[in-house]
Write a structure and sequence with these properties.
Length: 213
C-alpha cells in the first residue's frame, strides 16, 4: 500500500552520466583519506563482510588506504578480523598505518608470503591493483587458493570497459574474469551483488566471484 502511494512520486527512469559518477568517485574520501569507491560498492562491501565474516581480508592495491581503512573499521565493528593490504608504494597516512587491524605490505602482490594467511579460517580477497588484464589474471590465479569456501574473490573496476578504456588496459578486469572462470569452475559469478542496485550498478562489473567448492 505504501509502495503504491510512493510510486506516483517517482519518475519512471532517472539516469546519470557515467562519466560524472566516475569523476565523482575519484573525489570520495573516508575519514579524510582518499578512497575512490563508488557509493553503491561502499554499501555492497559492508553487506558482503557481514555475510562472510572474514577473519582475514587480503587487499591487492592500497593506494592511499581509504578503502583499507573503511574495511578495517567494518572489521572493528564486527569485532573480528584483520586486513593485509598490498601495494608497491607507501602512500598511506598515519591514520591507516596505525590502525590495529591493518598490516601493510609494500613489495607488491607477487612477494606476498602465503604462510602469513595459514592460520586464518575465512579469507576474502580483493584484487584492486592496476586493472590491466595480464596483471589481474596473474593475481587472480595466485590468490585463488587462499579464498575460503563461500567467501569471495572480488575483482575491482571492470567498469573500465563501460568507460571505453578496455584497449588501454589490455582487455581489463572483465577479460581476466572471463578467462579465469573458464578454468576455475569452483568459482561462480555472483550476479546478486553485481545487480543489487540495478543491472551492473557497480564499478566491479563481473567482479563478485564466489568460491562454491
Amino acid at each position: 500500500m505504501i509502495l503504491n502511494r510512493l510510486k506516483r512520486f517517482f519518475k519512471p527512469k532517472v539516469s546519470y552520466p557515467l562519466k560524472s559518477v566516475y569523476n565523482g568517485h575519484h573525489q570520495v574520501t573516508y575519514r579524510g583519506v582518499a578512497c575512490q569507491k563508488s557509493p553503491f560498492d561502499y554499501v555492497i562491501y559492508q553487506m558482503i563482510i557481514n555475510e562472510v565474516k572474514p577473519d582475514l581480508i587480503i587487499e591487492i592495491g592500497t593506494n592511499q588506504g581509504g578503502s583499507t581503512l573503511y574495511l578495517a573499521d567494518l572489521l572493528q565493528i564486527y569485532g573480528e578480523g584483520i586486513i593485509h593490504s598490498i601495494d608497491i608504494s607507501d602512500n598511506c597516512p598515519a591514520l591507516v598505518k596505525n590502525h590495529s587491524r591493518i598490516k601493510l605490505f609494500h613489495k607488491g602482490w607477487d612477494d606476498y608470503d602465503f604462510s602469513l594467511a595459514k592460520d586464518f579460517n575465512k579469507v576474502l580477497v580483493i584484487e584492486d591493483s592496476s586493472h590491466h588484464y595480464q596483471n589481474t589474471i596473474e593475481a587472480m590465479q595466485k590468490f585463488k587458493e587462499l579464498v575460503s569456501l563461500n567467501s569471495y574473490l572480488i575483482v575491482e573496476d571492470g567498469i573500465v570497459n563501460s568507460m571505453g578504456w578496455s584497449k588501454s588496459y589490455g582487455g581489463g578486469p572483465v577479460k581476466a574474469v572471463n578467462e579465469f572462470l573458464t578454468s576455475n569452475n569452483n568459482f561462480k559469478l555472483d550476479v546478486y551483488w553485481e545487480n543489487f542496485f540495478g543491472k551492473s550498478a557497480t564499478f566491479n562489473t563481473k567482479g563478485f566471484l564466489k568460491k562454491v567448492s
